[in-house]
Amino acid sequence: MLSIFSSRQDKSNKLRYPIPSNSFIKFAFCQAVCYSGLSYKENIMSTRQTAVINGLLAENVGKNDLVRSADSRANQAESRASDAEHNARFNQLKIDRLEAEAKNLKEENRMFRELLSRPMREIAEVSGEFRKTYFEQQQLLAEWIMGQKAYKETAMQLGMALEMTPDQVQSVAAPNYTAVLENRTQHSNNSTTNPLLAEHAANILALRKKNGKA
After folding, report:
1. What is the greatest pairwise CA distance in the chain?
2. Tally of structural domains, the chain
3. Which ranges of the sequence are coiled-coil (predicted)?
């Protein structure tokens, strides 16, 4: 049996609305043509039928276009929703990775802060690059101490040659400490000749004066 309506269904297989089928419209059109050889009155009716059929055809085409347009928009919306969900998952993974990285950096920062609170020798035992620099500085400091002891030994030898006691030699050398710190030496041994000593000379001098040594 000829169906005069076609069923337009959406993705959920639920009927939206009935649309006249093209086969029915074509059948009606053929019927109208068959009556074209009848009377004037009947021809008028046939013309009206043709107009109605043409209107139905145009309406049917328009409805089909609307349905296709609605389906297209629905598919596009579904695609955008899928893309948004994918982007959300990607962004969440990125956020999780950044949070984990921030946590690791905070832990590393805490470890370095704790390390810096330890004596320099302990830091050198942990850090390979710092160890090299540390022991080079320690060697320079040891060489400087060696030089100071050599000068002190020489001063003692000269003092004893002059029949001076060690305490007498120390009393003669004491004013020279202040002279070095105040840059008043006679043989260019001022604190300004050494950058490190120059940086701390004022504090050392103030401390010696406070302790009654200058």
Report:
1. 162
2. 2
3. 67-115
